[in-house]
Amino acid sequence: MDQKIICLAAEKTADRLQEFLQTLEEDDLANLLQNQAVKGKAAGALLRAIFKGSPCSVEAGALRRLKIYTCCIQLVESGDLHKEVASEIIGLLMLEAHNFPGPLLVELANEFVGAIKEGSLMNGKSLELLPIILTALATKKENLAYGKGELNGEECKKQLINALCSGRWNQQYVIQLTSMFRDVPLTAEEMEFVMEKVLRMFSKLNLQEIPPLVYQLLVLSSKGSRKKVLEGIISFFSELDKQHNEEQSGDELLDLVTVPSGELRHVEGTIILHIVFAIKLDCELGRELLKHLKAGQQGDLSNNICPFSIALLLSVTRIQRFEEQVFDLLKTLIVKSFKDLQLLQGSKFLQNLVPHRSSVSAMILEVVKNSVHSWDHVTQGLVELGFILMDLYGPKKIPDGKTIETSSSLSRMPNQQACKLGANILLETFKIHEIIRQEILEQVLNRVVTRASSPISHFLDLLSNIVMYAPLVLQSCSSKVTETFDYLSFLPLQTVQGLLKAVQPLLKVSMSMRDSLIIVLRKAMFASQLDARKSAVAGFLLLLKNFKVLGSLSSSQCSQSIGVSQVHVDVHSRYNSVANETFCLEIMDSLRRCIGQQADVRLMLYEGFYDVLRRNSQLANSIMQTLLSQLKQFYEPQSDVLPPLKLEACILTQGDQISLQEPLDYLLCCIQHCLAWYKSRVMPLQQEEEEEEEGFYQDLDDMLESITNRMIKSELEDFELDKSADFSQSTGVGIKNSICAFLVMGVCEVLIEYNFSISNFSKNKFEEVLSLFMCYKKLSDILNEKAGKGKTKAANKTNDSFLSLKFVSDLLTALFRDSTQSHEESLSVLRSSNEFMRYAVSVALQKVQQLKETGHVSGPDGQNPEKIFQNLCDITRVLLWRYTSIPTSVEESGKKEKGKSISLLCLEGLQKIFSAVQQFYQPRIHQFLGALDVTDKEGEEVEVSVNERAAFQIRQFQRSLLNLLSSQEEDFNSKEALLLVTVLSNLSKLLEPSSPQFVQMLSWTSKICKEYSREDASFCKGLMNLLFSLHVLYKSPVILLRDLSQDIHGHLGDIDQDVEVEKTNHFAMVNLRTAAPTVCLLVLSQAEKVLEEVDWLITRLKGQVSQEIVSEEASSQATLPNHPIEKAIIMQLGTLLTFFHELVQTALPSGSCVDTLLKDLCKMYTILTALVRYYLQVCQSSGGIPKNMEKLVKLSGSHLTPLCYSFISYVQNKKSKSLTYTGEKKEKSAAVATAMARVLRETKPIPNLIFAIEQYEKFLIHLSKKSKVNLMQHMKLSTSRDFKIKGNILDMVLREDEEEDEEGTASQHEEENKEPAKKKRKNK
């Protein structure tokens, strides 16, 4: 039969074929076709013949075709056919599909939809036909019966797609169905249907099936809905990551359901690659991605900024046209995230409203962690981002040359954190990816070398961490490090020290690197630049410290841990400690040559030798010999010659230039410390060994003893430094005398420490100490007196004290806390001198100040944080005891001495120490406070929280402040009060804001402000600042501001002099003296902060609304979750309105108060406008505006706007009065000009304010129209711009002017004789 059909088909006309086919049963035809196809015979030819004999123009033919189509589709799906046969059949069906009449196309399509919904498709091969059917259907213009109604082809297609997308899809066909839609012409609306359906299917698929589906989606997105696709993919993986993290941190039992971490990351990596590839081909997709993520940063970050989207962004940076935009977006995101965090931390009001946001920095570090799963496309972006952050937000250089690195002032916090994040990204990436290590190291070293002039401590820290992490791995990069060494002599000293300290573990591993460094250092030693020589000394000292000689003591007290814990091999096996010894002695030889160089180079040596000795005790002989021979050059050996030191030899005169040649004080200081250490650590161990070596220790001791005795006998005249000596800096003699004086003072200090440390509490020694101090004091007084007459008041402040921090701590403990009976008599010698005790405390102060400014102190162990911390604890304990047990009032009533009392100095020291400990030892605060608690017994192991310890200290200082305030006004010591407030502020930062101790502190401060009145502006400012800083962490300070503004209004009076203002006495601290600039400026700056918070909240709300408006369904409920935030914003603004209402009526003095008030009013109106604009945005969906918003607008119209205009008039009248006043004086035309300039400057904010008010009113009109509520009924439209010339007043003013002019000319004639003299004086 099949042959017959094919033969008939070969005829020219199809009539016979048609007749034959009509005679056959449809089932027979279907069976025939099926048999042929299964056998793999010429099914294609048979099919063509059947189609030829079944023209669509005849109804029977069309129906036959339909039957054949259905039969073929089932055949193809059955899976019984060969691939080629199936493809041929599908191909023929595709070719013929467009001939079908519309109704049959609908029927065919419905069959497909039904099969897909029921899941009866076997292999989905026939799905290739569906796009052709739908496309053919779309071209039919006539109406077709569909369902119960009639629709044209296009609408039918839409309904079919709708039906298809609303049914169930079998998960195995999702990818095929998605790729099928590529070939269907879709409208935007249909595209939405399809996209939503496919994205909903994500969660039902296996993880491995998602990448091919995403690929199909991206291809499909070229037709539209790009944003939808990106949004869907990002939010799906964001959710998946969240679940994954929760499961990982949750129960172990969940392991059964979890996706393995590696698999998830690999899938994410593949998808990111797909998206980046799609963006390369379709830039529009890239733009949509950036737009989508930019929108996300306005509202709540967690919606679309997640580790996945950040990794995606970083991969996109490989596309050149998007690189800059992406990095800009990431920078903005990071800094914004840190700023938001800072804002939230500083305000309880915001913390209550906004849940804690996920931090972008944590997400980025998670991306680094995830990138281990072969995300090579992300790592390059990560490295670039790390360097961009470090370059942009690293410490900056400020004009006076210091760098602001340690300052943790709040404004710098986000930038510092961003820089730190950059360093963390680079360090973590370095740890994970070997392939990129070399590049990171090179980039860091390049920056260290090329940016010598700007601060690079952050890069040195990073380098140090990298080297510490893997010194052995870095051996492969040694050439780069060696290359860097060549630049050492051109780099600043600080950079050289930092660099060598960072790469020092490498020197222990790589001998070649060490050798090349030594060559470079030797060259540098004889360079012409002083800095290069200093660098050489620094380098050699570092090497000596870190290369142990056999037999050296264990350096458990090392100042820097060497950090080669990762070097598991015995580094010195090949290059043993004997070789180390030769190496070290060779370096010592080199250093001896340096002793003949400039004072700066010698000074570095003397400062470094002590550390070397402590770390490498075998070098003691060599070092001590060197120091001894150096001292002998300046020492007078005959015991009766005064003075004992040749000061002349220490000074170098070259023509007119006089400079210090030998820092003798530093030399002695070095000898004294080395000797003390040697005696306590080395000599006890050497008693059994040979004695002859100890000769020169005895020599040194004898020399120091002799110098002490003769220094005490020497008069100032012996040094030629009596009162009549010249100390001016302009003459050679003066400079020489100053240098000598400083040397003598330094030597005295060194000897004080030496004699105290060897005294063993002997009375004679203490008398010697006091005599030495008297010599120091006389010189110091002379220098101060001379400096006081000259201009350089701070001449003697520049020299740091030579006493070591450890000694200061021991000395203070002995002076104030030592109650041992046997020490009593000898200590009374020192205690009898108030001057000496004051000196001891002031040196402690100087040391702490140095620590705050530079992060370390001068003297031995000054770079060792651990030792400094211990000494600080001891010093604080003593100062605290001294201050609390002998209050200032008691001490001062006894003796009236010039200078600060000891108690006051102790308090100042405490204040400095508390802030220094918070700056440098934040993690160890608990230990610090524990050390202060003298009542603690060692045996008791009771854990006391930081909160309780801090509260205990706070109570002591509160008592002191109360005692001060209860004294008479004339006895009030404002310096002490201010210091106490600063100490309380420092300590209150340690309290947990949710703790009862914090609440107690707040109510105490509030009570003090309410009950005590002092006319001291700086004290008032300190106390008010403390009150506000506590209050904002408890709740919003708006009520406080309102009360204070009423007080200010009451004290300063009203702008209308006829109005009597009722005095409200909320806070006694506000009085006539403090109200004007002090409190007024403080409350305005606080109001500004509140306005900033409100502004932040409004921006956040706007961001959320713009995200939600996209989907209409969401926006109908969008306003509900925002309700508490909106309410809070309106409450804040309402209270601030009453605050400004008071201040605007206050007769403020001209100047900063008026300026700031005008600027803040301007801000207030800008933020009111922002709120109105927010309601314009929300108005349509929420149906109107809340009642309290209407009240706020009414309040602003009745209580603020009219008063603003009268305040502006008040300010302008005041200015014109001051102008006429200066005009009347007619002293100088310059005076009038400066007054005019000041008026212009001060009235500048006025037009801005008027503009802000008018903008506010403009948007209110818009909102009134939109919300159908008349908000303008309470607004009195401004009249400031309307004006009318009043003739009678004008005549009066003109007449006054004429009279003034006549008076002016008369007075000018009188003054004409004096005028030229004045001018001359000005020209001088």
UniProtKB/TrEMBL annotation:
Q: Which InterPro entries match?
A: FANCI (IPR026171), FANCI_HD1 (IPR029310), FANCI_HD2 (IPR029312), FANCI_S1 (IPR029308), FANCI_S1-cap (IPR029305), FANCI_S2 (IPR029315), FANCI_S3 (IPR029313), FANCI_S4 (IPR029314)
FANCI helical domain ranges (all copies)? 284-370, 555-783
| FANCI solenoid domain boundaries | 64-280, 378-541, 802-1027, 1040-1290
- Report TM segments: none
Q: Per the record, which residues fall in region Disordered?
A: 1296-1324
Q: Which residues form the FANCI solenoid 1 cap domain?
A: 1-53
Listed Pfam families: FANCI_HD1, FANCI_HD2, FANCI_S1, FANCI_S1-cap, FANCI_S2, FANCI_S3, FANCI_S4
State the name under which the record lists this protein. Fanconi anemia group I protein isoform X2
